[in-house]
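Deliverable D5.2: sample structural annotation.
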Amino acid sequence: MLISSDRGNATNLYSIELSSGELTQLTDLAPLPLPREVEFLRACVNPTRDETYFWYDLDLIALDLTTLKSRVIFRMEEGWETYWRTPGNAGMPPVFDWSASENVANVEVSYPVPLEREHLGMTTFAYMGQVVFPVSITVADPTKSVQLRLALTYAVCRDVCIPLKADLAIDVPSAGGPSNKAFYALIEGYRKQVPNTNRNAEMSIESATLTTADPPYLEILGRARVPMIKPRVIVEGPPGLSFHTSITRLLAGGRRALLLLDVIGSDEDRGELLNMLVT
């Protein structure tokens, strides 16, 4: 059994031999400054070989449980970011291509709320360090196995953007496989960060109106069950348009918020705002 412990003011990974109770330290990592921390609560064990995976700072580490040798399998360098489904004024959204999968009726990818970033006068909606996109799969025939095949195209950016591609595959038997509580906790943690479309949720959008002013602006009214402090919205509109919040007013003791957004783009593009999505 694997556990984490913060003995000596440093979080490390340990194993416990259940038959004897023997405790063995598996890692010897230096403590990280806050707010970063070693995410051993999200450590995951490989079901087919003696290997576990965990995040340390910006590195995803693989640890061989037999030799105790570790290797970095993914590293997001300081200052680099990847993007939400609508990246903003710059960047490139991830593209999930599941077309090579078999026995799959539908795939739904969920996007946790991103950070709003200002850089060189541009606004982007991005993720830094770590992100998990929860995926829901609808199986065409539950009596048959599933072959998931993903061709993922994405970009990481700092001063320049580097497009990348990853090809991933996993086969799921019709009877299912062993559950992994660590993976489940990790995925559910990010699923809770996905915007809720339920109007009865803790926060929701009441209305979004394009005014007739010259130039026009977007007026958004939101509500919450508990008082808001610094509400923000992300507007997804047609290509060629971007949005910048210029005024925020809290109403009803903070349980309602009025946000006025500048609409940056051509008059022709503004005419397509009926198709916008507000988060």
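Annotation notes: The mean pLDDT is 80. The first strand starts at residue 2 and ends at 5.
The annotation will be released with the project's public dataset once the embargo ends.
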